[in-house]
Design brief:
Blueprint: H1 3-7, E1 48-57, E2 60-69, E3 75-81, H2 89-100, E4 104-108, H3 123-129, H4 136-152, E5 155-165, H5 167-178, E6 184-188, E7 214-219, H6 227-239, E8 246-250, H7 267-283
Parallel strand pairs: 3-4, 3-5, 5-6, 6-7, 7-8
Antiparallel strand pairs: 1-2, 2-4
Helix pairs in contact: 4-5
Length: 287
């Protein structure tokens, strides 16, 4: 059980499978996060090309949600790594937000081989039955396939970035250690001292392999990610000669502070983090 994921959802909420409205990747919200809050942000798709696509990974067709400015080519590419809840409406909305900034944004459903993350109401069960089966090697291979798909569908993968949230935030760090051609990365409250899949190394243990510039956005009041673990990662990166990564820790801010559909949402930190994210991409040539 991951305490930060559970605590960031309101206690006593009615998690009812009948409330689950997701029908295709990127539509509706995951059952475990219902009902969503009134502050949930919705970005319209006017002027954008949006929707679900299938990305070939060997013989497997991986579903994904993509958003891009309509009719544009040679777009900078941003991979979007989801939370433990899979690619539901919030992740799709993040893709649309990025598309409005001129990016081809793609969120692959990285749990698709293991089950429907969006259908679970029991978070510990979701983690043990689905999330824990998605090893770093599989996830990084899926992201490589997503990059190849983007290159063939209007993306300029010489300008490549990744961003992600919680499990996806950890995935950002992992992919930064895997893909030497990655230009920039932004990790939102991704655990660095623990794993979801038992066979993988922690981010701290892989620090020497991280070459891409990563911006880590964290909350000081995140009960599942102690600030001292970020300090340990920063020290490990510097010891390995990596001075291109930076951390921003927002005071009195919980886990999931960007998730506007959940009670953990903190508008000031979310808006500040978003501005930093876009600036980080541009600083490192992904614009």
């Amino acid at each position: 059980m991951l305490k930060d994921e559970i605590d960031s959802l309101a206690p006593g909420r009615d998690f009812n499978r009948r409330s689950f409205v997701q029908t295709t990747v990127g539509s509706g919200f995951a059952a475990a996060v219902l009902p969503v809050t009134a502050q949930t942000i919705t970005t319209d798709s006017a002027g954008l090309e949006v929707g679900s696509v299938n990305i070939p990974v060997g013989d497997f067709q991986m579903p994904a949600y993509r958003a891009a400015p309509a009719g544009k080519k040679n777009l900078p590419v941003v991979l979007v790594a989801c939370e433990i809840f899979g690619v539901h409406e919030h992740i799709a909305d993040v893709c649309r937000r990025l598309a409005r900034q001129g990016y081809l944004a793609i969120a692959p459903e990285l749990f698709a081989r293991h089950g429907n993350a969006g259908a679970y109401t029991d978070i510990p069960k979701l983690i043990s039955e689905v999330v824990a089966k998605a090893a770093d090697a599989q996830v990084n291979g899926d992201l490589d396939a997503t990059v190849a798909w983007a290159a063939a569908h209007g993306g300029d993968t010489a300008r490549l970035a990744i961003t992600g949230f919680c499990w996806g935030g950890r995935t950002v760090w992992s992919y930064a250690a895997h893909n030497a051609k990655l230009n920039a990365a932004v990790a939102w409250y991704g655990p660095v001292a623990r794993n979801y899949h038992a066979g993988d190394q922690t981010v701290i243990e892989r620090a020497a392999s991280i070459k891409a510039p990563v911006l880590g956005l964290y909350g000081a009041a995140d009960g599942g990610i102690p600030v001292e673990t970020l300090t340990q990662l920063e020290a490990a990166l510097k010891a390995a000669g990596n001075t291109r990564c930076e951390f921003v820790v927002y005071p009195d801010t919980p886990h999931g502070f960007y998730a506007d559909y959940r009670p953990s949402y903190r508008p000031a930190a979310a808006e500040g983090g978003w501005k930093r994210c876009l600036a980080w991409f541009k600083k490192h040539g992904v614009a």
